[in-house]
UniProtKB/TrEMBL annotation:
One of its GO terms (biological process) is acyl-CoA metabolic process. PANTHER family: ACYL COENZYME A THIOESTER HYDROLASE, CYTOSOLIC ACYL COENZYME A THIOESTER HYDROLASE. The lineage of its organism: Bacteria, Pseudomonadati, Pseudomonadota, Gammaproteobacteria, Pseudomonadales. Belongs to the acyl coenzyme A hydrolase family. Keywords: Hydrolase. Residues 13-125 form the HotDog ACOT-type domain. Coiled coil: none annotated. This is Acyl-CoA thioesterase.
Length: 146
């Protein structure tokens, strides 16, 4: 394993981010389930936190890949959002986010929503900069194992 790969593995473990929220009526839609736009905003937030913790540099969200809404999230549920860096390029990161839903009154949980968000590190001039200064990147982005 190269020094860069070791550093990616170390930072990936340290940067995994979790946010827990309760789903109350102000965040729901006319079906009394979590509004999709709210879910996306929460996912962008937790992915940004994970990406920032990974590189500790200014970042911008550049895209969100496929977002899969597998199960409705009813009002009165607890959700946990888990963000984890899954790919590291020279100036960019990809963060996978999963939302798990659980009842407030029963054990168990299931994955309800998943997606991937891409970020680019930027300097003071708002131009891309390396996410791991001091570590030379290979030609291809590295996928994080784990």
């Amino acid at each position: 394993m190269t020094p860069r790969e070791q550093e990616i593995q170390r930072r990936t473990e340290l940067s995994e981010s979790r946010v827990t929220k309760a789903v109350f009526p102000p965040t729901t839609n006319h079906h009394n389930t979590l509004f999709g736009g709210t879910a996306l905003a929460w996912m962008d937030e937790v992915s940004f936190i994970a990406a920032t913790r990974f590189c500790r540099l200014p970042l911008v969200t550049v895209s969100s890949d496929r977002i899969d809404f597998k199960h409705a999230i009813p009002a009165g549920s607890i959700v946990e959002l888990v963000g984890r860096v899954i790919k590291v390029g020279n100036t960019s990161l990809k963060v996978e986010v999963n939302i798990y839903v659980e009842s407030m009154y029963h054990d168990g949980r299931e994955k309800a929503v998943s997606g991937v968000f891409s970020f680019v590190a930027v300097g003071e001039d708002n131009k891309p900069i390396p996410v791991l200064p001091g570590f030379v990147a290979d030609a291809a982005a590295e996928t994080v194992n784990g």
